[in-house]
């Protein structure tokens, strides 16, 4: 899902079990402001043709993003926007292509840091979640070429109560129709590599964390921990009243934040 314009090029990356479809409100707003926008499906997500059991690694899962950044014309500076688990996808792209990225935006996202493996943020989020949080989330084991891999998919109750609780009934319904099984890749070698992210590459890219203030699945305290403790000095923005799916519950406010970021960083 791509559009052209004379401004910045925003590349949007969804979170766990979601796809490019979740950005459907934001994409036309950014295009109307004169920017190019690409909303991507990670492998086995959204309309991507692969099945999750066919995705060998986190790198393969991130391949649509890595390919899109690699293909960006010389001189075109990108604004990467990662939502939720998508923060780890954009972190990998920042490490590989730091000079192609004008700014990286972490929207209620996992934001890793130099010196820790990328899975550390996901592990900490999972550690802080109470058991009753999971409601009708379903776990499963995928038979992959690397052996069994845990996966999960959101049920309608957890979508309505924890992710889309301030979004419309239409958005909740859309999500129940379109979510697919997803993996956190916690045992993946890329996710476990403490030397993966470097100050020279990942650390050199301007980062902005957008706090969804009413997020019922990733608390404000957890979001602030990733900024203040893991990445001190990172710029932070807030969106009042935004649930975890801020692109659905507060699309206009999110668009305004992204436009400010696009104007600020060259």
From TrEMBL:
<dbReference type="GO" id="GO:0080030">
    <property type="term" value="F:methyl indole-3-acetate esterase activity"/>
</dbReference>
<dbReference type="GO" id="GO:0009696">
    <property type="term" value="P:salicylic acid metabolic process"/>
</dbReference>
<dbReference type="Pfam" id="PF12697">
    <property type="entry name" value="Abhydrolase_6"/>
</dbReference>
<dbReference type="InterPro" id="IPR045889">
    <property type="entry name" value="MES/HNL"/>
</dbReference>
<dbReference type="GO" id="GO:0009694">
    <property type="term" value="P:jasmonic acid metabolic process"/>
</dbReference>
<dbReference type="InterPro" id="IPR029058">
    <property type="entry name" value="AB_hydrolase_fold"/>
</dbReference>
<feature type="domain" description="AB hydrolase-1">
    <location>
        <begin position="11"/>
        <end position="256"/>
    </location>
</feature>
<dbReference type="GO" id="GO:0080031">
    <property type="term" value="F:methyl salicylate esterase activity"/>
</dbReference>
<dbReference type="InterPro" id="IPR000073">
    <property type="entry name" value="AB_hydrolase_1"/>
</dbReference>
<dbReference type="GO" id="GO:0080032">
    <property type="term" value="F:methyl jasmonate esterase activity"/>
</dbReference>
<protein>
    <recommendedName>
        <fullName>AB hydrolase-1 domain-containing protein</fullName>
    </recommendedName>
</protein>
């Amino acid at each position: 899902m791509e559009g052209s314009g004379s401004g910045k090029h925003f590349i949007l990356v969804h979170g766990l079990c979601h796809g490019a479809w979740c950005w459907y409100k934001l994409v036309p707003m950014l295009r109307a402001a004169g920017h190019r926008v690409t909303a991507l499906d990670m492998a086995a997500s959204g309309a991507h043709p692969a099945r999750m059991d066919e995705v060998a690694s986190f790198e393969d899962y991130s391949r649509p993003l890595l390919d899109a950044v690699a293909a960006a014309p010389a001189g075109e500076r990108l604004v990467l926007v990662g939502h939720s688990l998508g923060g780890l996808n954009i972190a990998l792209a920042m490490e590989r292509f730091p000079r192609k990225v004008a700014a990286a935006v972490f929207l209620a996202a996992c934001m890793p840091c130099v010196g820790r493996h990328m899975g550390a943020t996901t592990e900490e989020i999972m550690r802080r979640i109470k058991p009753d949080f999971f409601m009708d989330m379903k776990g499963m084991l995928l038979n992959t070429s690397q052996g069994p891999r845990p996966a999960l998919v959101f049920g309608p109750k957890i979508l309505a109560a924890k992710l889309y609780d301030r979004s419309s009934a239409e958005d909740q319904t859309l999500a129940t129709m379109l979510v697919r099984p997803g993996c956190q890749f916690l045992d993946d070698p890329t996710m476990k590599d403490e030397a993966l992210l470097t100050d020279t590459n990942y650390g050199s890219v301007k980062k902005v964390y957008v706090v969804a203030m009413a997020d019922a699945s990733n608390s404000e305290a957890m979001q602030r921990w990733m900024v203040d403790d893991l990445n001190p000095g990172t710029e932070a923005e807030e969106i009042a009243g935004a649930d975890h799916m801020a692109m659905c519950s507060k699309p206009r406010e999110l668009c305004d934040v992204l436009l400010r970021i696009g104007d600020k960083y060259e």
